[in-house]
Specification:
Elements (H helix, E strand, L loop, with lengths): L2 E6 L9 H13 L3 E6 L12 E6 L5 H15 L6 E5 H5 L1 H8 L44 E4 L14 H4 L9 H12 L4 E4 L10 H10 L7 E2 L4 E2 L2 E3 L10 H7 L17 H13 L4 E8 L5 H20 L9 E8 L19 H14 L7 H8 L3 H9 L2 H5 L12 H4 L2 H11 L3 H11 L4 H8 L5 H11 L1 H9 L2
Helix pairs in contact: 9-10, 11-13, 17-19, 18-19
Length: 488
């Protein structure tokens, strides 16, 4: 019996570490080894000799925490590094950089070849069911622990430059038998309520009907329930569905399962007509909840971004007025997702998109942090957060962070009009901004583009107009302005 240590770095993580869970099945269930799972740098494991250490990696922007964790175990447990196996997304996308920082050659892509970790047998770890038992050993709350997590397909035939899928899963596999996965999970860990499929483009599969049949055969029908309390069962294609491939026939099949939410991506304004057609098709077949990804800061403009968000507000209003034949109201939540390059070691990096300067990106980030999650469905909420039109949205992006966070009065919900809800310093900002000429607005954008107070101080005394200088002074004194108002 060997001692096996599984490590997930202590970065923010919503989902259980699927790769480590499959490795646990291999070692704990099949090989009968002693397996321990920890998060972060855990000194309690120092007194044990570990035959193998497996360290997971996630997104590249978790770089600092990941490298710190790898080096912690490399330096404290072993005098040589070959017993440590590092794999996952970051390891696959940045193997050379990881080696330079740790001295470890990572395991890249999927564990679909026993030679990758010197197994000495022919078991394909990637095909194994996850071991849910290891999650009980850490003081960390994951989502979807009462959920079958797996794949009905792997990879994606598309080659979107902003997406890492083809680096990690270069071959598209159109069908994986989820019945086998669910059967094995039940045997190991008991029945689960929901089904989460991590497929990156299931609608590309020529076995799509077989996949839906499998889902139904496993007990996930439209109104299926779970357990004695009859909790509603849910199927979630978590990575989203391709609106370009959503036909009437496929939507009809999706309507046979408890899909909640249905996720689509709206990455490009050029797909406007395709996207709207797909959403209306979902509404026609009674899809109640939709949660749609809105990528920004890739090749789009702030105007494109605003328009895509507003389209969902318009569609929500359309569906509230016009229910489908079964009287179902479709509700769409937008999930804005900022583009981060595939080799970015931090979230806030320059993507070379000339349409989004640092001030625009920061302004959008502050808006999204205030609403704390999805863009809600109501027009009043949307216009209060993002503005009543694009020009107003751009004006909001140019405001100081403190103004964006504190745009409205504490009792704003009691106020009837948009203007009445605004804090006095925001009204003053808007009054001055409205007087700017086109040239002055361009000067303001240029002066704020780096989103740096020293740069703003310099720009404010650099032959600017009185109006532009006044708005720049708002940035310099924003905290005092807001605090003075709150103190009254």
């Amino acid at each position: 019996m060997k001692n096996i240590l599984l490590v997930e770095p202590a970065y923010k993580s919503k989902y259980p570490p699927l790769g480590l869970m499959k490795i646990s099945t291999y070692h704990r269930i099949i090989k009968r080894d002693n397996v321990k799972f920890v998060r972060g740098c855990d000194p309690s494991v120092w007194d044990i000799y570990w035959d193998r250490v497996y360290i997971a990696t996630l997104f590249t922007y978790t770089w600092d925490e990941t490298i710190k964790t790898i080096n912690f175990y490399r330096k404290t447990l072993f005098s040589f590094a070959k017993k440590i196996y590092v794999g996952g997304i970051l390891a696959s996308l940045m193997p050379d950089e990881l080696f330079n920082e740790t001295g470890i050659n990572p395991v890249t892509r999927l564990l679909n070849d026993p030679r990758k970790i010197n197994q000495g047998d022919d078991i394909i770890i990637d095909d194994l069911p996850p071991d849910y038992e290891i999650l009980k050993s850490v003081n960390f709350e994951y989502s979807h622990t009462n959920t079958y997590i797996g794949y009905a397909t792997r990879g994606c035939p598309r080659r979107c430059k902003f997406c890492a899928v083809n680096e990690f899963e270069p071959k598209f596999i159109p069908y994986i038998d989820i019945k086998k996965l669910i059967k094995n999970v039940i045997k190991q860990s008991g029945e689960k309520q929901n089904l989460l499929l991590m497929d990156n483009n299931v609608l590309c599969s020529n076995k799509f009907d077989n996949i839906i049949d499998d889902i139904i055969s496993c007990g996930f029908t439209k109104d299926s329930t779970f357990g004695k309390t009859r909790r509603k069962r849910i199927v979630d294609f978590n990575q989203g569905l391709d609106a370009r491939l959503l036909t009437e026939e496929r939507m009809k099949r999706l309507a046979e399962i408890p899909l909640e939410p249905m996720r689509l991506a709206f990455d490009d304004i050029k797909l406007k007509s395709v996207y709207i057609k797909a959403v209306r098709l979902a509404h026609k077949y009674g899809q109640k909840n939709m949660s749609n990804y809105i990528l920004y800061n890739y090749e789009d403009t702030p105007k494109d971004f605003y328009e895509r968000l507003r389209i969902n507000i318009d569609l929500n209003e359309e569906f509230q007025k016009n229910h489908n034949e079964n009287n179902v109201k479709t509700i769409i939540y937008s999930f804005p997702m900022r583009f981060i390059p595939l080799n970015a070691q931090k979230r806030n990096v320059d993507t070379r998109n000339r349409h989004w300067n640092k001030r625009f990106l920061r302004g959008a980030q502050v808006i999204l942090s205030v609403i704390k999650g999805p863009v809600m469905t109501g027009r009043q909420f949307f216009e209060q957060a993002f503005g009543r039109n694009f020009e107003e949205f751009r004006e909001i992006l140019l405001m100081p962070d403190e103004f964006i966070r504190n745009r409205v009065k504490p009792d704003w919900q009691k106020k009837q009009s948009y203007k009445e809800r605004l804090a006095p310093y925001v009204k003053k900002w808007k009054e001055i901004y409205s007087q700017l000429s086109k040239k002055e607005r361009e000067e303001l954008i240029e002066a704020l583009s780096e989103n740096s107070i020293p740069d703003i101080r310099y720009a404010s005394g650099n032959n600017r107009s009185i109006l532009v200088r006044t708005l720049l002074e708002f940035h310099i004194n924003a905290k005092d302005t807001v605090n003075d108002y709150k103190g009254k």
